[in-house]
Specification:
3-stranded antiparallel β-sheet; 3 strands; 20 helices; 55% helix; 455 residues; mainly alpha
Length: 455
Amino acid sequence: MSPRKPTIQATDIQHAKSLLSPGLKSLGPSLAKLFDPDLHKRDNGFAALQKQLEGRKLSTADALAIVRLVTEVTFPPMQFDWNDPVDELVFTLVENPGAALVAPLRAAYPKAPDAVKRATLAVFGATATRPAAEAFVTCIRDHGWPANVYGRVFTELSKLEKFSDVLFPELMLRSGALIGDVTNVLISALTSGELDPRQVDLSSLAPLAIAALPTCLAKVRKLQGRDIRWRFMERYQAVRTTTGAWLDIAGHVPAKQLGPLLERATKLRDPKLVAFAALSLVRRKHSVAAEVFERIAADHETRELLYDYLRNLGALAKFPAKWRTWDAFAAAEMARWLMYPSELGYVPERIELMQKFTAGKQTLYVWKFLDGKTWRAGVSGPYVLKGAPRPVWGASTFSQFERASSKTAEQHALTVLETLALWNKAHTAEAKKRAKRARSRRRSNVAGRADLRDG
């Protein structure tokens, strides 16, 4: 059933237009269409608005105008929920953060729709100031998290790590279902040294970890299987994220009761959770059996994680020599690419080297991996393999999921490189078009300001 046609309110359109700063006056016609009773015209208005906002640079006056627009104007519903004018408008603030936005967004947060709340939190992070960190914590403490918090909020939150004394432990205590994302920021701050555990009291997290881990471990044991794919099933992800977060936290809080829980976790079948448990034990100066590190390093999903954590702990000597090779790390990168939900979505049961090619200082790997019962081909690299083996990243890591037997290793490599070259060419052309449109908008804005002065 189509959304009910709203009654046009000319005053709504006039009010929306009246809030526009001089630099945003060109949005007026698109905004007016968003109030049209014809659903098709509203969709056209949204598409036009989306195009106008793409890559747009905002002045402080423009940004403040958008804050008022998204908090004072109610737009009629669109055909599809994901075409949300408020979301589209407010997200431009994330790309154009500024200290002047903190106070008005903080004041608007309590009554704002979730789309505005999500973007507000991201703007606080992107602003990267102490007042922004204080605003972030205050909004969560007094009014809670919005629904459907997207990853960009936590990407921007990491920019507030230098003010971790403001963020923690408050955000951890109020993280709820978002504990995994908040923990990532906490651990990053601790690892980078932005948060000194001697200066911030994290002991309040200890009783929470002691209470949560037994339940988490029981849930994991109930869901774990014997192959690989169960680790990537949707029903397991929330349990995995929450359990991993508490295992990670346990390495940073001094409670003796956590030691046995970490030991118990090293017996799980999920190597990622085993890794978090083992590394927390290392951080707590406990001994960890060599076979535990062997299990973690042998798995393509957790090899890089183990290396990075042990390096940060100054304990790389514990990394199994068998898996500290360029081939092993190249295979791990191939697996990392395949794990993306838009690709294979999980680590293959088997990944085997077909051939590697070296040109000058660069090496390209061609792999075959098992997708069900079918062997398919993938490429990782190119890499400059210099110094001691370590995790790698290659710009051409990719797979077209062709049968491995359909071509030679060299042909698979050439096919992937040709495909990526075409994509890069198309991307460059589109980027040039966007830059041209942006320059055109800037010229229009300058001309508009000149007209205002002349008038």
